[in-house]
Amino acid sequence: MTRGTTRGTVTERVNGDVPLWSAGEAAGRIDADATVGVSGFGSVGYPKAVPLALADAERDLSLTVVSGGSVGEEIDTALVEADAIERRYPFQARPEIRELINEGRVAFHDRHISSLGDEVAYGRLADLDVALIEAVAVGEGWLVPSTSVGHTPTYVEQADELLVEVNDAQPLGLQVLHDLYRREAPPDREPIPLTRPDERIGPGRTRFDPSKLVGVVRTDRPDTPYSFRAPGETERAISDNLAAFLAEELDRNPILAERVHLQFGVGSIGNAMVEVIDTVDFGDRAVHYLGEVLQDGLLDLLAAGQVESASATSLALSADGQDRLFENLDAYAPDIVLRPASVSNSAEVVDRFGVVGVNSALSVDVYGNVNSTHLGGTHVVNGIGGSADFSRNCPLAIVALPSRTDGGTPRVVPMVTHVDHTEHDVDVIVTEQGLADLRGLSPRERAERMVAACAHPDDRDDLRAYLDRAGRTGGNLPHDLDFAFDWR
Amino acid sequence: MTRGTTRGTVTERVNGDVPLWSAGEAAGRIDADATVGVSGFGSVGYPKAVPLALADAERDLSLTVVSGGSVGEEIDTALVEADAIERRYPFQARPEIRELINEGRVAFHDRHISSLGDEVAYGRLADLDVALIEAVAVGEGWLVPSTSVGHTPTYVEQADELLVEVNDAQPLGLQVLHDLYRREAPPDREPIPLTRPDERIGPGRTRFDPSKLVGVVRTDRPDTPYSFRAPGETERAISDNLAAFLAEELDRNPILAERVHLQFGVGSIGNAMVEVIDTVDFGDRAVHYLGEVLQDGLLDLLAAGQVESASATSLALSADGQDRLFENLDAYAPDIVLRPASVSNSAEVVDRFGVVGVNSALSVDVYGNVNSTHLGGTHVVNGIGGSADFSRNCPLAIVALPSRTDGGTPRVVPMVTHVDHTEHDVDVIVTEQGLADLRGLSPRERAERMVAACAHPDDRDDLRAYLDRAGRTGGNLPHDLDFAFDWR
What we know:
Chain A is an alpha/beta fold. Helices cover 28% and strands 19% of the residues of chain A. In chain A, α1 (23-29) crosses α2 and α17 runs antiparallel to α18 (457-473).
């Protein structure tokens, strides 16, 4: 490990001869129809002052905004209310922008996180005019990101111009967490040289051509991060079912014999599922978290040594979680690594370490197809995010969700109205009712298992009636398309 | 390159002290309810004599058969007609087994090819009692596969017992093609050390514990390989549209600036699309084929030097193609590499070289979701095979298909009845009508482009009428679920 050897050496926020601007001056530099690549992932580490200045500028803006993942209200609320965003990738988590997307007034496409940087670099997704990046420190030709990395190194490299917000509300001490390995473009791409989950393989700062840096803005506005619902009875029951399964799997799966690498999806369910680490007896096995976001639930486990290391591309903590981390940053720092999303979410890394991935969903069907994004098949919630990066490349992909919505609508259905993860990508589905291990089952066998183990008891008769009717059509994967969405 | 340095040294078919058995004796060794891992991929390189002996044995068999990919009539016809197969993974391409699967009489699940070996090794897909492997040569503790590799090295390692068919109809000279790199299991998996598409990184033989080898059977029965439909007017038009796109993409995509790595899916469409290599002016760029199967169309291009190298896990040639290759094996050998499917189809390799993947489909929807497997959402054709291994990890994933079936049924629809590749995995869709570059488009924009560019002209009004109606429901991705499958 090269842990920390070149890190922790920056003592000033602003270093060398860089142009200091007000937020308004920087906002004025952004063309009305610019394509802006912003930092930010897991609702933290995004620029705040310049977006607010843009929103206040009373200009007629039609921006394309490409972030790493979700960002805060300064972008996806304030800029939306100023009618300034015309196009948006790849993920959002705020009602204001969600509404405009679903009205067709903001063009949006949710993209896999792992390959988003590549898409910006050579996939024709967006040609960045400006990169607008939050940093804890900046110098002539380098910056240190703040609470998330996402695709910041790529955006900095790809954009014609660079604007940096140096945020005094983000501890300078965050600099020790970053490991900013940059992948070459194909076909000269090298293997990612990561041999341990907590290894550091890249620099702690992102370098850039100093002539790109047009302005640095100072701010002290904190993140507006996620807040998590406290786990309720349903989440606890899901977590218990998952824990029972993991305990059995530890005994029989050779790739879990010595070390275990886990990932949990973003959100309240993912945060609640982290509890399984406290419940399961891992014996002598080291447990590493190798995921996309680090959420509150991991902090206690890291502090107690139950999780040896946690790596991710975002510290997607609640405000309380941020306080806990920031106050004890030196204690946590050796065990936390923040990487570019092109590394944290890469197929190569997920496969290499044999990550057990646990992600939530809106609904699942009895054949194992999963809808993570579109309510009713039409209205997007947040986007696919990194869920498929993990479920597609995990040797053990688990989907955890309640069997019904709070309002009593079934989440275990005959046919999902939108597919984000196919029947080929999902190994295990768990609800508060039970767990279906789908590995090695045919579609008909899967359907039987799903109804018996995962569906809400009050939905089982209707599901079985549908499957009886579908069986008359026959096929490897029986459906009656006239009733697939209208089965109750 | 270590090309050929340890290869081409086997001069005898059967070497050392190995037990020679008749096919009937070997068949008798297989328990009635055994789980059998067979070699075979792309309808070549599968065992023939022992399956035929099993089919003739008049025993009451309920076998689980796990192959690498598709196999020939000796397994998926003869054993099926003998009612000997109860369960089958991961792919099949013969009407006899397809019918039983769709009647629910054979339990089948199509699995991604890249991870199938891992699933057998530790994913609870199947616990192999016997590996039944076709080889061109065998010795005490080693064998050389024949016309395909698939997951043979894994099956040999995982099975309790090993039966080998040495096939004199397969040239001994095939030994120079194999590069049998074995990946370690996670979490100690190393990066695949492939730095050039034509590099050889592993041994030319598969090693095994000699005590596992219970019998060697001699045969001289040739493969019953695929036959390809000659490209018709529709395929030529698709190929022309694809060629025009590739010519433009060469100019604008930095990852194609110096070298191009291509993959084409198995089947007549894939084979026809190979023609684009002859049509497009690649300038000084080296063109490498980095795919799952090597089909007939590549032979001329390799001979002419238009393709520098071709690597795959199967020589999925027609009988005529096999003749051409076998008669000129020494000339072709330096440019062809046969790898385990866990390497040829790995996310890591596909991503590293920036493969442009071209795969066919049964149908696509206007939002970019693709059905490759299930007619009407219910009746499986062949299975997903490796198509998603490429489309999910390619930086440029192209789907090529006619806009209608031969019978006039639309293949461009509002909502596919089964999703194998999601809207997030597909970049470009091409039909004989035109090409839709979906990169950077929102779902509504995609739908408009797909109807205008790819749909059959006689379907466009109906598709637009559907989209108008769906637009009333709104959403990021408009649908009217009452009419999504009943839109005409």
